[in-house]
Amino acid sequence: KELTPRALHVVPSSNAARVCGGGGDALTKATCDALSRVVGDAESPIFIVAADGRDLEALRTLATRGFARLRLADRVVVVAAAAAAATLATELGLGSTVVRVAETETDTENGGGELKLKLKLAMKWRVAAIALSTGRSALLIDPATALLRDPSSYFYRDADIEALSDGWDDTTAYGYDHVVDDPDMDWSRYVHGGRVLSVDPGFAFARPTMESVALAELVASRILGNSKRRGGNSKRHDADADAEHLAFNEAMYLPSHGAYTSPGAMKRTLNYLCFANSKLAFRFLRKDAHFKDRAKHAPVAVRLSYHAREVKRLEAVYDYYLDGDVAGMNAWSDGVGVRSKGEAAEEAEKAARDARLCAAGANAAAASTFTAAEINASAMGVFIAKHSNWSWAGITPFAFETDGRLSTPWGRGTWTLVPAAGNASVSSVSGSASNVATPPDANALVATFAGATHVLHFERENARGQGEGEGGGEAFDMFISTRCGDGDVVVGRAVVADGDAT
Questions:
Q1: Which fold has domain 15-168+197-274?
Q2: Of 176, 167, 165, whose CA–CA distance to 392 is shortest?
Q3: Are 147 and 66 in contact (CB under 8 A)?
Q4: What is the pLDDT of residues 288-338, one digit of tens each?
Q5: Looking at the whole model, is its pTM more than 0.85?
Q6: Boundaries of each Nucleotide-diphospho-sugar transferase domain copy (predicted)?
């Protein structure tokens, strides 16, 4: 039976008269003045953009290639935390809806005096709370966003908040059953819980509801409180963004407990393929044979959440999806900066090698028993022998059996180790010790099932992260599969207990 979400506690548009009726502080008056010049009705979201002197290049790109091209400029409110940002907004035709925020505020909690810190992000959420209180929907959008289409018609509007995910597949974006293992507890050793990646406050659509207003006010106060605890004027752009990210996700996910009361907002995670973060766009979409074809798929928006300081990537995203400039998009690395010649050559060699492996793997006979020598020659082989159960795009069970057979939800298959770089054929797994002459590849294998052959490359899930530990993963706990023939890309993960993907 299809579930029906609860009715939203919508703030009526008539509430605007109370909010903007002449009272309130300076920020409320400035916001109401800006809102009075924004066109559209209650269902047409106001685009709220916060910018200071560090956001000028990104703001210019968003305004010209996003808002102006899509004819959305008359629905934008700019929260300007620097004179340069206000000046630029005026030059870009957004001056009539600028809410100017001073760079310092009086610290009334401590008896006056100047609190020297940037208030851009906190004030963005205060402006959002005021706008929502007048009965208008709002889309909070970071300047470092490539807005390819008008997102207004893509929201479900069945939740208080709809936000872009930091995830890059179904498992990371929508969550999974996370298992904690405590062997000392014997039969009750496995404890189940949900785990999902955070959502992005840099692209969040809010309906005008009581819960959304409460959440926006809470996020603003949390950001401001965090800044006060840091003390002084924050010089790190990342520190401000981290404070907002933490405050927003705590307000979204933390349950009421102790003295804390949750805002109670119903949440929806936006489709991560339509509303993409930059990790998904650069590490996966541009390499997938289907999704890299802009005629077959183009996101509504791409947030540079993983590459916030590389605003030139915005131009590359626009050039790719609007003009078909593949070279510009592919000039950037998955991680930081542009690709070096070595990275480009390595990527080309990997693609050529995968093609050879696909050709060989498609004709390979079903794998038979591996010898201990063959398995022990590869650290990956040892890991797979130890962790036979995996997920495939979040679907379980998916098992690599030690005799070279593969068990999947789509029927039986086979998997084989592949030779180290330089050998074009799939390694023999006939069980003869003489076959160990060519050592297996350090992190790749070929799998065939359901009539298709796939090349799997294994790695630690957060190989580019902060190291091991909680969430750090083991050496080969994730693979990226490319399907031979159509280039479809899938992510798989090791399973910590039967049926539970890590």
A1: Spore Coat Polysaccharide Biosynthesis Protein SpsA; Chain A (3.90.550)
A2: 176
A3: yes
A4: 888 889 999 999 999 999 998 788 999 999 999 999 999 999 999 988 888
A5: no
A6: 73-308
